[in-house]
Design goal:
By secondary structure, the chain is mostly beta strands. The chain has one domain. Helices cover 6% and strands 46% of the residues. It is built from one helix and 22 strands. The strands form six sheets. It has a five-stranded mixed β-sheet with strand order 3-4-5-6-10, with no helix packed on it. It is globular. 31% of the residues are buried.
Length: 307
């Protein structure tokens, strides 16, 4: 709530380091580790996204790790809503995927070039993230703002398949979309001079391509208002998506049809806002693997569902 980023040791609970580079609430944190670094992206309601770089952690360095100055920063036109890392098939470094309030677009940002990318310290001013491209989730909509992509999760089986929970009211809409990653900037050729007609045809072709990338656009029947905080989680086998709601119910949506095929009830109080949902495979008491769903609500309950 203060805008701080806190790094703590899970084994001891000790705070290893903390920084306050945001001026308002930090609402999302995403991480990704490559061969040399651990990347941390923070999104806050000061309309900023900050990127931090840490050396790859191991048993000899994780007790001495410190948060450095932000490696890169980004100022947006409105508050960011969701952020995650994805791997571009043609770019060595990760790509940052961002959505922001009052925009139906997904924004792709690449990291700034840095000759000292493996350095453990950063003393220069934060660099700017580079906008690689964007993808519209409502390419043929005539409305000024149809919805906001409030939360999204990459499929556990397909790194280019994204499930998106939107801010649509009175019921959440779920979008499952294939990511149309733009090519690297170095491979984009300057187009010849376009006439107004050719530019219109080009924009229509792009809209058709974006529409074709949307595999599922379904109503989940999960009630929400403009003040809700949509959340979702893929099933481990990617056959469906769990979504939260403001009525104390967790709903399961089939990924291939968009139909609500499961409801988890009587765990939370009726009418309780469910704030967060997680799904995954855990080891059971008998040593075998079990699929679990975990939900947390404003009734102060954390509920574990065995699916």
């Amino acid at each position: 709530m203060s805008g701080k980023l806190v790094l703590s040791d899970l084994r001891t609970g000790d705070v290893l380091d903390e920084r306050r580079d945001h001026q308002k609430y930090v609402v999302k944190v995403a991480t990704m580790t490559d061969d040399m670094n651990t990347w941390i992206a923070t999104a806050a309601w000061d309309t900023k996204v900050l990127l931090y770089r840490l050396p790859k952690l191991d048993s000899t360095t994780d007790t001495d790790i410190k948060l450095n100055e932000p490696f890169a920063s980004l100022n947006l036109a409105s508050n960011p809503e969701a952020v995650t890392f994805i791997q571009h098939p043609e770019i060595a470094t990760p790509v940052l995927l961002i959505s922001r309030r009052d925009s139906t677009f997904l924004y792709y940002y690449t990291f700034p070039d840095d000759s000292t990318a493996n350095s453990t310290t950063t003393t220069t001013k934060p660099r700017e993230l580079f906008l690689l491209g964007r993808q519209n989730l409502a390419p043929h909509s005539n409305a000024w703002i149809a919805f906001t992509p409030s939360a999204f999760v990459i499929s556990p089986h397909d790194p280019l398949l994204l499930a998106v929970a939107t801010s649509a009211v009175p019921h959440m809409k779920l979008i499952i979309v294939r990511l149309l990653l733009p090519p690297p900037a170095s491979t984009i050729h300057a187009p010849a001079s376009l006439t107004q007609a050719s530019q219109a045809r080009s924009e229509l072709a792009l809209a058709d391509r974006e529409a074709a990338a949307i595999l599922i656009h379904a109503t989940t029947l999960a009630p929400q208002t403009a003040y809700s905080t949509p959340d979702l989680a893929w099933r481990p086998d990617a056959s469906g998506v769990w979504v939260n709601g403001d009525d104390g119910v967790v709903r399961g949506v089939e990924a291939t049809t968009g139909k609500v095929v499961a409801t988890l009830v009587r765990g939370h109080d009726v009418g309780t806002k469910i704030r967060c949902v997680w799904a995954g495979v855990v080891r059971g008491e008998d040593g075998g693997e079990e699929e679990w769903v975990v939900s947390g609500g404003f009734d102060r309950r954390l509920v574990v569902w065995k699916v």
